[in-house]
Amino acid sequence: MPAREGTYGLIAEFDNPSDLVRAAKQARHDGWRRMDCYTPYPVEEAAEAINFHRNKVPLITLIGALMGLAAMFSLETWINVLAYPLNIGGRPLYSWPAFIVPAYEWTILWAGLSACFGMLALNGLPSLYHPLFNAPNFRDGATTDKFFLCLEALDPKFDLESAKAYLQTFQPLSVVEVEY
Hints:
Layout: E1 7-14, H1 17-29, E2 35-38, H2 44-49, H3 57-83, H4 100-122, H5 136-141, E3 147-152, H6 160-168, E4 174-179
Antiparallel strand pairs: 1-3, 1-4, 2-3
Helix pairs in contact: 3-4
């Protein structure tokens, strides 16, 4: 039976992180790809179990830093060579050593801003709503003492009844269907 319209997925609740990690490793091994773990504190083994290693923030930061460097060098070159050329003491119009400090400042500024806004964009923030907030057990235990494994309905392997039976094999405290 395919997932009903409006179903986000199934969420299994566990008492301890070791059960969550065991279930996540097994689900990954069995071919599930669209899943996520939710814990009240960081559990590195859970991130490794679901093969979570996507981090594009350093690349975004590097691109922002290079754009800041290029923008300031271009601006200073344009001002000093083309727009307002001033011959002071017979020095050359394009004197790049004088451009280093402002270009460095812009590099740091653009890197910091691109890291901040890139992280927010990649995290999907600001987001005041997530479908998991519809699950009462998630609202009550996600930030205190419970551990959750969510199999998303977007996974090609997802079938509501078979996924529910699959999650029951891990003996969770509960398995709940999450709707949008």
